[in-house]
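Amino acids appear as letters; backbone shape is given numerically. Here is one record.
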Amino acid sequence: MESCARLAHIDLCYVVAITLFAIIAAERHQVKRVVRVAVLRSKNANNGDCLIVYTKHYRRAALRADQMTDRWNPVDYHEHSYPQYAFALGLLDRLWPNGDERILDVGCGDGKVTAELATRVPRGSVLGIDASPDMIAFARTMFPASAHPNLSFRYGDAAKLTFRHEFDVVVAFASLHWVKDLPTALRGIKQNLAPRGRFAAQLVAKRHATAEIKSPLHRARKEVMDRPAWRTYFEGFEQRRAYSVAECERLLGDAGFVLQRCEFVTEEVMHRDADALKGYARSTWHRYTDRIPAQKRDALLNEVIQRCIELSPADRSGRIRVRASMLEVEATVAGT
């Protein structure tokens, strides 16, 4: 009888998911994807209550994905953060974990890199933290403990870490350049690590103090922001600080790390078309777009993408290849 009731409950949730799919299928591509994931979970995870909460909550988030705000949109980010994922996989391949480490992922975002890391330490554990409650809620839903027993997610600020010598490895993929107080964050990360612990990170940085970041997308954004139609919106805007290699090395030393490697890694990121490139920009540029009236944000992004394609033209299939670089660092904590 109990199994019959459970099946009936799952069938009801399946109908709810299909209904939601029919209502919102025409809205945005990523909404289709999210609801399909929910339907699959209703069949395999036997968790109908979670399904209903998930589809309702992220239907609302996805429908607002084009209304760029100062909050991270996990659905939009999950759909368009493939460049960050590609970079992260490269560093994961270079980490060579033993399989039993306790790992902390600082700024885990939607959790997909964190989940991949958990598969590489089957006898260990991975905790992902992020300062966005929406990201943490999304990650917990996409990668539940029932399917990933060595993986967990928790709200946390990179500059206010309170762990003490609890992890063998701390990683940060494309997150530390968002931290306003990087020196404090690095000192906290060092305190999180056990003796002989390892720290590895990727972040946006400059090759030297007077250099500028030369990615076509960054250059296009800067040029468009300086145009008369947009200039007034960015008066007094404080650009995110990009540290130089020398500054990063000094900060790591000041925090008590023993530097092992500090070098730029370059990837050629392929965006399938202009819409994909625009989605990538939209999913992380809310600091910029939040300064623009909602009805004008799309126009700003269109101008940036058009200028970027002029700098880095699409191929015959419409794909846009953009070379991007990240500073990759590895450091250790001295043993006792």
